[in-house]
Amino acid sequence: MPYTPELQELIKKVEATRAERVERKKRGEEVPFLDLDERKERLKFHPDFKEEGRRELQVGPSKGYAIAHEIADVLEATSRVAPDKVDLSKPAYETDVLIIGGGGAGTSAAILAQEQGAKVIMATKLRHGDANTMMAEGGIQAATKGEKDSPYYHYLDVLGGGHFTNVPELAEALVRNAPDAIRWLEHHGVNFSKDADGRLKTIHGGGTSRKRMHYAADITGAEIMRTIRDEARNRSGDISVLEFSPAVELVLNEHGQCGGAVLYNMETEEYFVVKAKAVILATGGCGRLHIQGFMTTNHYGATADGIVLGYRAGVPVAFLHTVQYHPTGVVFPEQAEGILITEKFRGAGANLVNVEGNQFVNEREPRDVEAASIIKECVHDGLGVPTPTGRLGVWLDSPMIEMLEGEGTVKKEFPGKYILFKRYDIDITREPMLIYPTLHYQNGGLDFQNTGETCVPGLFAAGEVGGGIHGANRLMGNSLLDIIVFGRIAGTNAAQFALNTAKDGALNLDHVAAYNKEVEDAGVADGRVSPALLPMYTDERIRDRQLTTEYVGNVR
Question: Which residues on neighbouring strands pair with residue 265, listed in sequence order?
Answer without folding.
Answer: 270
